[in-house]
From TrEMBL, chains A, B:
InterPro entries: FAD-bd_oxidored_4_C, FAD-bd_PCMH, FAD-bd_PCMH-like_sf, FAD-bd_PCMH_sub1, FAD-bd_PCMH_sub2, FAD-linked_Oxase-like_C, FAD-oxidored/transferase_4, Oxid_FAD_bind_N. Belongs to the FAD-binding oxidoreductase/transferase type 4 family. PANTHER family: D-2-HYDROXYGLUTARATE DEHYDROGENASE, MITOCHONDRIAL. This is D-2-hydroxyglutarate dehydrogenase, mitochondrial. The gene is d2hgdh. It catalyses: (R)-malate + A = oxaloacetate + AH2. Keywords: FAD, Flavoprotein, Metal-binding, Mitochondrion, Oxidoreductase, Transit peptide, Zinc.
Amino acid sequence: MPDLIRGLGASPANPGAAPPRLPFSRVTQEVLAFFRTLLPGRTITDPDLLKSSNVDWLKTVEGNSEVLLRPKTTEEVSQILRHCSERNLAVCPQGGNTGLVGGSVPVFDEIILSTSLMNQVITFDNISGILTCQAGCVLENLSNYLEERDFIMPLDLGAKGSCHIGGNVSTNAGGLRLLRYGSLRGTVLGLEVVLADGRILKCLATLRKDNTGYDLKQLFIGSEGTLGVITAVSILCPRKPKAVNVAFLGCSSFQQLLETFQYCRGMLGEILSAFEFLDASCMSLLEKHLKLTNPITESPFYIVIETAGSNATHDEEKLHQFLEEVMTSSLVTDGTVATEATKIKALWSLRERVTEALTHEGYTYKYDISLPVEKIYDLVQDMRGHLGDMAKNVVGYGHVGDGNLHLNITSPSKDPALLAAIEPYVYEWTSEWKGSISAEHGLGLKKRNYIYYSKPSEAVALMGSIKAMLDPKGILNPYKTLPDNIH
Amino acid sequence: MPDLIRGLGASPANPGAAPPRLPFSRVTQEVLAFFRTLLPGRTITDPDLLKSSNVDWLKTVEGNSEVLLRPKTTEEVSQILRHCSERNLAVCPQGGNTGLVGGSVPVFDEIILSTSLMNQVITFDNISGILTCQAGCVLENLSNYLEERDFIMPLDLGAKGSCHIGGNVSTNAGGLRLLRYGSLRGTVLGLEVVLADGRILKCLATLRKDNTGYDLKQLFIGSEGTLGVITAVSILCPRKPKAVNVAFLGCSSFQQLLETFQYCRGMLGEILSAFEFLDASCMSLLEKHLKLTNPITESPFYIVIETAGSNATHDEEKLHQFLEEVMTSSLVTDGTVATEATKIKALWSLRERVTEALTHEGYTYKYDISLPVEKIYDLVQDMRGHLGDMAKNVVGYGHVGDGNLHLNITSPSKDPALLAAIEPYVYEWTSEWKGSISAEHGLGLKKRNYIYYSKPSEAVALMGSIKAMLDPKGILNPYKTLPDNIH
């Protein structure tokens, strides 16, 4: 396990580290007794059982919580938060714990409130495609549930086997289908949320349109559990497409990849459901650590294109015309197409498993950047030149269709000199091009102090006011999302 | 002109009326002098010129403002609001003044802040399709600007010739393309907003993804100018489709219309861009008042279906197969299809001009209801039975694809007895089916006190806290959106 961030105290030299512990109360025997009565058998204090909930998926942030609560109902969450609010106890809400910015694990001894037993589908309407479920449903389970009913989830991401829909909504997860179905801000129709003081906000509407007052649910989408705990979600699900095709293509330059994207948008139009990329360095890591096979000729860049439509013949015709165009104009050097589920899955895994392959390289410095699409790979190349031999790998992959680059820099172990060469350089570069320093991962613990690179002071101050209004004691996911200093 | 709502004082019998005037300051000569220096020639006090800004489009709500300000820049808006905030002067922000709930006109003597001269496109990126413009741009002008560049606006509505994009965003306008491109909560990427005290919030991002802190722009989408004045918008625009087809069909029952909708979603899939309906009563009014011609055999229900796609041959094939299916199964009794722009426009006007036709009937009681789609016409039929001869017309039209019914009830003139028979009956009915009492029109002045039919008290209380945080003096669009009593 690499070095961990553990209550180090943030400093100008290390703004991603944890700040000093705030003066929350400690969990007492009386508090534990209350929880054990409320949640018999679901109040976990065994350190071995707590271990995995205290550490993030990347094993880079570790907390020291002594109690993990596993409520099953909204009412139980409400009672937990009322108790914690009255006693000034800090709480870390946790879904599948697959976040990449240290947002889902405690920093010190926050009580972990896990949604893992809140995993029931409440209703599904197969006319409207509206699903209502508890927050702890695993994304892949929901996908399977819907596919049996001829629908799909409007989002999909690599962590689907573990992540919870509540966590997806809390972090405004993007993923692989955003290009087609838009963000959760549009597809989430309603939320049930427990506020810091235990009040239950029932805004679990199942309507496509509702303009009655302020849209409160938006406050809880993407606020990383700092304003309330999402306990149930209603979400609009698209029909399962009748035909899905995946093409895996190679390009010899990023410029050619961008031109391919332009052709793709014009010729595939409304059936385009994903346009993703990885570079040659990602492919090497997939081959090296996961023993995956590159299905085409080696290229500097690889593209995954997915189409999803209602007429297989039409879709294949569009895809064929597109491929002919980009092959004859030499924009694409080689490629393969899959229409069969197993092969589709195999091609997708080349894109989806890059994050996993990187974890085998030692320590990974991860950046999730939004930029104008024509700039996204310049940052990777610039960073390679800037870091030289200091970094083991500098790789780029991500969502071309969304202008979203995942820049990853690896090193055999945690390396403060390397970090100092990357940051704030990467943030300054992004800010100069009016990009976002966190496109879809959120800010969590690791990125909170960099918010000013993407948001003006007035905006951050207003965020602080919202936090103070909804969680005046600051007990919900402290040390996350908002910077240590609001100025 | 029918009877107007003019500072009547809301009562349990008339909750849609205006409450008593709040103790805001009056506009003094000193205030006027300040405005005249700031906005020379753009500080309007001539009562004749003020007339049209004091009355809503439906001519049902009239204020008595004595000054209309026409700023050109965000800085001017900021100075206006700072001045008003310091002096406790109430302000009514106004776009194209096409709202249907009395949200865009003053109730008493609020200063009218018009965005009509803030009509400049700031940037347009023809790779990403991201448009940034001032809030006062007229929707149709933006549509024309984009069409010349091979893009379209993600929203379209009957009032496009007058409504402003800032007003569209402030009211979270839905309209005719929501089914395809989703709501403004997803397509609006950034906003610039002036807060009540004059502070400028610059969140005019042009990125598809940005998860750095709370998404503040959502607070201003749909809050009807009560939390801030939107001065600029950036919005993601889809490519102009290569092929557009419109079909106008007749159905003999609403059940058959719903079955047609199910076939349509399955067979047209991703190319479906609108599924709208009107009933036979609407058609009669179009013929009577606007001299429009019904292009098909008389039917109890009419459907407008639009497809928009990237391949004309494929789209026509899909549409043809769909029409054959619904004609042979007798779901549809008659129909006509248009591919040529003039004919498309003519067919669309049958749906778009219903609102206008209704204004010729005398007084119209307008309801904009979201319901599960299979219930939407039950409300119209139930209301006809309930009202009997009291109403001149009870008509239904709207967005089937969004479960959104426009229920309109006409009367030769304003009729308190009729109103008492409609309300709260219509709201209770809607609430019973967990619908929304305002799907896309907002609450404005007329519907504010009915919010509890669609939102729980806890939610309304939180809305009140947000209002108090952002506009502690309550100067921004008072008497609108939030109910008179927050309990």
